[in-house]
Amino acid sequence: MDVEDRDSASDVASDRSGPLGVHLSPDEDIGGDGPDEETFDDEEAALPPDLEWLEELYEDDDGDGNGDLAFAADSGKKRNYAATARMFKLRRNLDQLDCFHRQKEHDVLKAREELKLCRQNIKSLVEQRNDMEEEIERQKAADNSVVVFRLRAQHKHLCQKLQSEEELEGHINTELKQQELELIEVEVELGRFSLLRQEVQEEERVFQALKAKKAATRMQQEKKASQNLQRKMHHLRDKQAAMLKKEETGCQKETEEGQVNRKIAAKYLKETIKRMHQQEAEKEQQNRELLEKRKQAVKSLKSNIAATQESLRVQQSRAKANAQKKEQQQRQLRESLQAQGINNTKHMYQQKQLDEIKRKQEEFAERQKSKRVEIVAKILQEEQLVKRRKRHQALLPKPSATDKFPSLGRAREKLLYYLDPSPPLAREERDTIPLREFSNTSSSSSSASSDVEDLEETMRPDVDHQSLAESLAEPEFSGLWEQNCKKLLNEKTMLVQTEVKQEESATPSGNLNMPAKKVHGKELKGPPFTSKPDIILFKDFEVGKIYKKKIILTNISYITNHCKLLGVSAHLKDFISINFEPPGSLSTGMSCDMQAVFQPMINEDLEGEVQFASAVGAFSVPVRCTIKKCDLEVDSQFLDFGLHVVGQTISRTITLTNKGALATHFSLDTSTCLSPETSQVQMPSQVFANTYQEMSSQNTTCDNQRSSASMGTGEPKQESQELFEALQQEQPETSATGPEALPEACVSTDVDAQTAQNHSDSGDIRLGNVREGEIGPFQSIKLEVLFTPTIPGEAKLDFHIKFSDLTSEPIPVQVRAVAVSIPVWVVQPSLDLKICMFDRLYQDSIMVQSRANTALKLTFEVCPEMRKHMEIVPKTGFIQAQSSFNAQLKFLPRCSLSKDAKTFFDRNTGVLEVPMTVQVAGQVKPVHFTVQAIVTTSDLEFDQIEVDFGYCSIYQSVKSSVRLTNLSLLPQDFGFLGVPEFIEVQPNDGFGTLLPEETLQIDLIFSANKAKEYSFQLSCKSGINRDFRLSCRAVGVRPPLELSHSLVQFGATAVGDHSTAILYLINHQTNHIQSKQPIPPLVKDTVVPVAPRLFSFTLPKDSDISITPSAGGLLPGERCLVQVKFRPRLLDQEIKEEALRLLHRAKLLREKELEKNRNAEQENKKEVPVETGKGKKAPVIPKNSNVSDGPQTDQPTESPNPGDIQPGSEQYEEARASLLYSFTQRYSEYTIPCFVSDENPPEEDRQAQPAWSPFNTLYLKLQCPAVQPPLVVISNNGHNIIDFHQVAVGEKVIKRFTVQNISKESLDLTSSVLDTHGPFSLLNALRCIRPGETHTLVLAFSPSLEKKYCEALEVRSQKMTLEMTLCGEGVVPAVTCSHPGGLLDFGYVFEKESSSQVLKLQNSSAVAVGFRALLASLSPSRPQGGADRVAFLLGRYTDSQVQPTVGTQNYSGLSVFSAVPVEGSIAPGQSQDITVTFQPDHQSVNYSDRLTIELMNKSKVCVMDLKGAASSHNMYLYGGDLLTVPIESLLPPLITSQPPLTESKVMEKPTIPVLVTLRARYSAGAITPAVRELQVGCIRSIQPSKKSGEFQWDNVASLQQQGFSVEPSKGTVEAGHKRTINVTWNPHCGYKPYEVVQTCVPLTLKGDETNVYRVTLMALVSATAD
Length: 1666
Known about the structure:
The chain is α+β, with helices and mostly antiparallel strands. The protein contains 22 helices and 76 strands. The relative contact order is 0.03.
């Protein structure tokens, strides 16, 4: 085991209490049986974890089969697996025991050292004590008591220290003995295991030897495997090399084949291009002709249009006059019908319907007529087509029944269509032109387009005049098309030629090709006789001479045949005679001869045949006679001299051969170079001129006819106008593209210029001495061309060989040559190295070519300024004759290039142009060439030298951007390598490519992982391994607070919905842990105390984010839940801009509508000219005409500014709805800072602002996507707030709001549960709404308390939650009454008269309040009958004030008291008057009722007891004690208690008793007099009566004797007033206590009647009297 392992084991063993902690006994080594074996079996079954590798080692060893680690070295027997495990376990235990022994030795040594140190201390203390005692004795002797006391104190202290040291020494000594004992025990244990240790060492040695042996074996196996692998790799490389060689051979072969095919393709491509040029020239000529015809058509069309416009003007003026006349007639008819009493509108409508029906019938008749004409024309055209088809089919041969190629028939028809000079369709179209013109003239839809159709139809024959050879395509490249296509084409051509010959021949017996016949079962093909030669040819004959030729005829048929001369062709009978003797019958293979004699009379070519007859059929021998002709050709039309040095003379010859029998004169012409193209260009111009004259005459006559036809119709021709406009648009395009499409028009000028150039260039090339001469028949002449270069460059000469024979065309010859000045030259005179970088090596090859016949010495020279930067290797060399030499150019531009080579290098542009020289031995003029390059830098530049990230939180990342610029003109790869783990480089992880002079923004994202200062460098390497460093520094801080999440990604949230994220703000600090964050460098060493932290989130302005709580404080160890809510909404500025856009669009629509109305008014306004001619009157404009003099121009209002559009306005809400409906999506990101304070405010000033540290700031990043809401509110102006405003407590207000589904899917609506005890309630259910549908929700608000209510109602769907805010305020109605309540006494009134009082209700609340006036007598809950009265009678009513709620009622059943109005509503701040009327119908003093004024919420404003009395007389007495029940009797109302008195019985009328009780109060030995009041009143009546009354007391003197006094004793009472009578009792001196004094006094009231009241006065003294 290693030393480290042993040390670790010793550390573990040191913790044990004693040496026996290592459980190891020698019995485990000695005993092999017993419990020990069982222990090892268990260990074998369950191996410890630290020895699992041993099991794997044994498994590997068993798999190899090459050795076993369990073999013993000496015995050779196999060891078991448990023995090996036992060895490792014993080694581990022995190591632990050794460690324990070392630990004990260390403890003993340590204790001995401590004991030694302690004894030294004791010794020093004893010496100090002895010295101290001696000093004390000396001081005693000196009698220095102060010092003695001080020394004694020190002596005492030393003795105490000495005693403690001695105690420590004893303790250490005891401990040392104990440790030595333990050490001895451990050593004894080590001695016991010495034999076991030796055995383990021996086993380890054997194990290491076996392990080394196995390692050697494995090494040999690995070597063998590597050798096998190398052999395989070598074999594979050989195989790949063979395959590569094979591929190179195949590639070379393919390259050679491609070159051969390219040459062949180039040959055919030239022929194809030449043929295409010819076809293009022909097409251009045709286009010119067609263009000229179109011009003529346009001219005729213009004249037709002018005539049509004139006729239209006449028609319009006529139509206006007819319209005016018709309007006048209609007006007159309307007036006449109106005068007759007929409904003019109905009559006019019926008349219009009849006119419309008549017009439709006329149009139908015209259409029938035109259709009939068209049908007749089509019938005629079809008849002509059928006739021509029959005639054409009669000329065609019938197809054979054995035709195996049906496609040949279609091809034959196609070829015949091309060969026919006038196709049947074109002829039919030309025949149908007059008929078409007739139909166009008769119909109103004819136009000048027929002229264009005529021109196109006349152009078709010209297009069809193409030869068969031009119509058939030829292959451009051999091998690209199949050969059977050519065979098929040849067969088609032969068939066509055969058919043409059959049609042209008059005698069918003259055909050489006979139909196949069968003879003796064999089929005979071809003629029965053959001639030798096949054609009787008389070549190059002369007129007047006689030519003879012998012909042999041989029988080739299978039968014996004979031959008979029929004659020669008719046109050859005058020139050819045949000498032929019939041979008789000829067997097969036999022949006969004949002689043809030809005596020409005319100098023309002749062709014909000699006709024979045989038994098989007729046959013929062709005859051909040709005159003498010239057949001239040259061996080469292109002569190339190649490269030659200036001063040499080289000659080349051209052989001109005449293969014909006619001599001619030739001449070499270099002045004019007429090519075939020039003739092709000039000829169409003449044809075009002739065609132009013919077409102009035809178009003139046609235009006259068309113009007259158009004048007759009198209708506008819209089609002609449209065609004219289209042609006018095409005409400038044609003229613009004319020069490009017609290049042949400039051929003559190009030829002249080329000729002049050839004269100037051909100074070095000249013709030989033979310029002209005669060339005989079958003769050849050599023409010499000389090239003597004088100036280096290219020389050209083009000349023609012209002939006097008119049938021979000139032969063009082109000569080309190139002259060079010197024999040695550089192949690339300008060597371009492109763009190069400084300090980079660039190489290129310089190839020098020599045309000299000897070897030459070359020396390359570099200018001195460039020798530091440029080098040519080798500097000197030899170039062999007629060969090339390659030199190597090395270019290494240094940074000092701009200083060294100022003349060659432009520092601003970087362009380098260096002239180089090659000196050639023996040559005066050196060879010059130029080296060009653009040298640029390879620098990459940062816009900053150092990046300072500042203070960065370890919980956040800080991004800083730098700009990296490529100053080079070449793109460069870059990459940031070795980037620290705490910084990130973006984009693309800091790798990329910079284009030339491109600047890229690099984002550096710093994430501090520890709170410390950072200073590092970023290394940016370019693609050429240049290193650019950027210094960075930052300070990592640990904020006291931490956000659980620094990035919140909200889901897609609809506008109007909200998404909520929850995170935590945590204060990890505790009271026992100090802040570890670095603080600014000035106060870095100070320790920041732990204190509660304040935090504050700062939201951006006008954002859709809300954070709760936005500010607060956190104590150490606390955490705070932070709720982040994202509620997307439309910005106010966006809504205003949309409103402006909608207003602008509405303004444009309004202006367009006004413009449309203005145009309609201008069209309706008819300007009728005043005509003064005879018999005509000016039309009279009605007075009431609504036609305005001029167009009315409405001035639209100016669009408001965005500031003028206020939220809540109609424009604002429309714009908001428009944005919601058109909203797609919006993505926004926010970074919210959270500021954290350093500490709390100071204790002395809690209002002071705490210190906020910028590097404690936390940042929260929010990603907020917003989408279109599927559900929107379309009522309430789109607001989500439903405000019920102020509602009186107890009342209920209902409001509705409507939502609409604007998505493309159906939505299932659900809602949140409102507070069941709250004032808000949802009255209807929700349902599923389909796209575009709406749903209305009904809400009710019924407050129960006086406070403000607010509750949220969520309308949920699958995609969003629409939150509605319900708010309202419960208001207690503040209604006051002018009467405070209680008793409302109406007093006395006459019976059957009324009295009223007005109550005023004032509403001082902010809401309208409803009220009701309730009378107890009219209440349905009042007991019926007299139940209340009975209850009252049974009760106690000793008090005079007791009065029932509802008293006496009228006999009539009408209510005594009434209130008007009974109910109503009082507006806020208004008042309402309630009139209460008392109207009794009989005399009674017990009228009473209760009036309750309550509001709609059952709250009572006031409760009043109404009271009144009715009397039949005007005077009354009120007051005194109650003597009777205050209600009337239960008897029927007809029985009255007091019957009315008559006038005769006035004096006999009984008196009315009145009791007045007076109670005097006795207190403190004094008696207070008793006072009572009686009221006498006079009723004011509406009837005229006595206005006043009188009252008088009788026997007033008797009252004074008993102590009573009455004041006043008599008086007068005015009507409507009452007077108070005070009755006072003051007992005399002799009054006895508890004695009742009583007396009776009459009181007389005089009014309309005289009533006497008997007033009984009763007085007593009471101690409890009030």
